Amino acid sequence: MIKIANLPAGARLFIVLTVLGAFSGLTPLALASPRTDARARAQRAAEAFRQIMSAPDQGIPGDLLDRASCVAVFPAVKKGGFILGGQYGKGLISCRRPQGSWGAPAFFTIGGGSFGLQVGGQEVDLVLLIMNPTGVEGLLQNKFELGAGAAVSAGPVGRNTSASTDILLKSQVVSYSRSRGLFVGLELKGAVLAQDKEANEAIYEQPITARDIIVEGKVRAPEIIRIFQQTLVRYSPKGIGK
pTM of the predicted model, to two decimals? Predict the structure, then answer.
């Protein structure tokens, strides 16, 4: 019997995606074209964020959102497994420009595997607030592990965060999750963020890196994904300087 742990990393990732695809009715080979997928991803991320922020007294606190350097949204992240477990999702990250407005988004993936006896499946919407320049620089690594490469805290919900804001601002990343109507701060550790180079190049129609997009601001978002920026502007039009 071949042990999964002894397989190459690429083979293990393929197995994780196949297992997760079983819960969504998709397989890695059934994915849409990069440009079509990126457009749909922007729309889903914008809608997920809108629903989260519209929840009465349960949204991300406005003062915390205003202090964030970047916002990442990963809609419908697949979590599940049978013997082999894992999580995988696609999303967008937009960062503030020096004047406080939201810049063009870059496309990222989030993933992570686990081993053990487990059965089940779930979809969750993930929102990550990247709170400072150190966290932003971490995003630009080839693979950025939350909890190892960055201090992660579960974020508070509601409007009153005065008691915990100082503590949260010491974290590089503040995380949230929503599943089946339940929205709470999430203890997210071990997940790996990676740049989705294929999606970025497909949308911006040129070889480009996440640094070029979210830090250097070398491109403007095309109309087909601008809904993500527009949604962020709706809830946090201008950031609070640090």
Answer: 0.77
- CB distance 20 to 28 below 8 Å: no
Give the domain range for residue 70. Answer: 4-235
Q: Could you give the count of Cα atoms lying within 13 Å of 131 in the half-sphere of its Cβ?
A: 19
Angle at the Cα of 111 from the Cα atoms of 142 and 148, rounded to 5 degrees: 60
pLDDT tens digits for 195-233? 999 999 999 999 999 999 999 999 999 999 999 999 999
Quote the CA–CA distance of 105 and 226 in Å, as a whole number. Answer: 9
Whether residue 242 is contained in a domain is answered as no
- Convert the pLDDT of each residue in 90-113 to its tens digit: 999 999 998 889 999 999 998 875
In a domain, 241, yes or no: no
Q: Which amino acid is at 218?
A: K
The token pair that represents 238 in the structure block: 């201008």
Domain total in the chain: 1
Q: How many whole angstroms separate alpha carbon 30 and alpha carbon 74?
A: 20
